[in-house]
Design a protein that fits this description.
Anthranilate synthase; 25 strands
Length: about 500
């Protein structure tokens, strides 16, 4: 067994690559062995072991609801699913979290080496906007940092890990109650759209935004609306995310649960930033057009997008803000000389990458505070556009357009949680927004939000077609892992 102390956390890597049930038993034995030897107070112990290939979402699906988390980055180089809570806070700077994050940089280790603790980070867009509809977001905290109790992490290899705090019995109980990976459930029967916002209220909000732009109080403001869906039975969040993953495979995929009654899912194309060591990469994603029915049409639409004065103006606003936010934190900063086109399944976006080298020990908390929200989801200037959204937007954003990501000592990766929905029982509310600048038209912006919601309409089509549309690959249903403590590339950048 290899052991690496890391401040208030000690990582233990057990040898081998086992079936999930055997791995859970071996982890439980290691925890009991340490208990018999006695453990130092205040230390978090992380135990991990390699396991045979498993889809982390298929592992997550049968686990008890209430504290499930899932994050997959856009490239697919990191997927992590977690259940339970070993350590939680509202801030990355909390001493307990900060101590764990001071560990040796080894987040993507060589096979067989212990990995760093990886914290999930979830922040709302603006807590003030959720007060308009507190019931919808009642089960979610405005800011939360979580080290899961049990996780399945896939990078170069797949590992099962358990993080143990003072009460090791909770970790052993979690391992005992853990289910094996199963086939991901199908989309809820009878899923259909039940409401599609209010076009008249939308037009009024657009008119108000254009008036504010004409008066010079804002340059851009992003307005969002909702589309409601309902089913004949409870909507399984993992089933919905699996279907959304099929609709938008080359996106960030996110599931956040903070109570058994509701969940938040997203398939977002937008990266807020990623950090490796002191190298940071962010990107501006703003300016939208539809996809064409064929390659020739796609190219023609992309060319029009790249030449659109309205879309370029909206995009440039986001680029300027990212550069101004990162400049004080970096010693050098470069960006793409001109926007590129990001192609998703239903829409195309303008995208510009920005790369820099951070000055010294700049924290992820400081970076998040500087970058979020970007004008891509709020507007510009930020204070004025946020105030306009608070006064004029009809929906309570909550986690929509907020931040979801993961942080370790050596790296971090965050997505802006757009193309997202909140699930509550048999109901699902999806969100979409559009950037309003001089020259915007209410009908065109309504159609743009409709195109952004097409991935959720795809879930309706999948539900209608039934089991013929596979949602994910998992192992067949199996017994509980541990019964006894004794025993089409849709994203192109061109």
């Amino acid at each position: 067994m290899q052991t690496r102390p890391s401040g208030s956390l000690v990582s233990n890597r057990l040898p081998g690559c086992l079936r999930l049930d055997a791995a859970a038993g071996m982890l439980a034995d290691a925890i009991r062995a340490d208990l018999r030897r006695g453990s130092e107070a205040g230390i978090i112990r992380r135990y991990e072991i390699g396991i045979e290939e498993v889809d982390p979402l298929a592992w997550l699906a049968p686990q008890p609801r209430g504290e499930r988390l899932y994050f997959r980055n856009r490239e697919g180089s990191l997927t992590i699913a977690g259940i339970g809570c070993c350590l939680a806070s509202a801030r990355l700077s909390d001493p307990g979290v900060a101590n764990c994050l001071r560990s040796e940089s080894n987040d993507f280790p060589e096979t067989g080496q212990p990995s760093e603790p990886l914290f999930f980070v979830v922040n709302w867009f603006d807590p003030e906007t959720a007060r308009r509809d507190p019931g919808r977001w009642l089960g979610f905290a405005p800011a939360r940092v979580v080290l899961p109790r049990i996780e399945v992490r896939r990078t170069r290899e797949t590992v099962l890990a358990v993080n143990v705090c003072a009460d090791a019995a909770l970790a052993l109980d979690a391992l005992e109650g853990m289910d094996a990976a199963t086939a991901i459930p199908q989309i809820a029967h009878g899923l259909q759209m039940t409401a599609d916002g209010d076009p008249a209220r939308w037009a009024d909000a657009i008119d108000g935004a254009l008036a504010a732009i004409a008066a010079g109080s804002v340059e851009k403001v992003v307005l969002a609306r909702t589309r409601e869906y309902g089913a004949l039975e409870s909507i399984d969040p993992c089933a919905a995310l699996a279907a959304l993953r099929s609709e938008e495979p080359a996106a960030f995929h996110v599931l956040v649960e903070q109570s058994p009654s509701c969940a938040f899912i997203a398939a977002s194309p937008e990266r807020l930033y990623k950090r490796k060591g002191n190298l940071i990469h962010s990107e501006a994603v703003a300016g939208t057009c539809t996809r064409g029915p064929d390659g020739v049409s796609d190219e023609r639409l992309a060319a029009r997008l790249l030449a659109s004065e309205k879309n370029l103006r909206e995009h440039a606003c986001v680029v300027r803000r990212i550069e101004s936010a990162l400049a004080p934190l970096t010693g050098s900063l470069t960006r793409d000389p001109c926007p590129k086109v990001m192609r998703l399944r239903h829409v195309q976006h303008l995208m510009t990458g920005v790369v820099g080298h951070l000055n010294g020990a700049v924290s992820d908390e400081a970076i998040l505070g500087s970058l979020h929200p970007t004008p891509a989801v709020c507007g510009w200037p930020l204070a004025e556009s946020r105030a306009f959204i608070r006064e004029n937007e009809s929906c309570a954003r909550g986690l929509y357009a907020g931040v979801v990501g993961v942080v370790s000592a050596s790296r971090s990766d965050f997505t802006v949680a757009i193309r997202s929905a909140v699930i509550d029982g048999a109901s699902m509310t999806a969100f979409a927004g559009a950037g309003i600048v001089r020259g915007s038209e209410a009908d065109a912006e309504w159609l743009e939000t409709a195109r952004k919601l097409e991935s959720f309409d795809g879930l309706v089509r999948r539900a209608a077609q039934g089991p013929s549309l596979a949602q994910g690959s998992g192992a067949p249903a199996q017994r509980r892992v541990l019964r006894s403590r004794q025993s089409e590339s849709v994203v192109e950048v061109s």
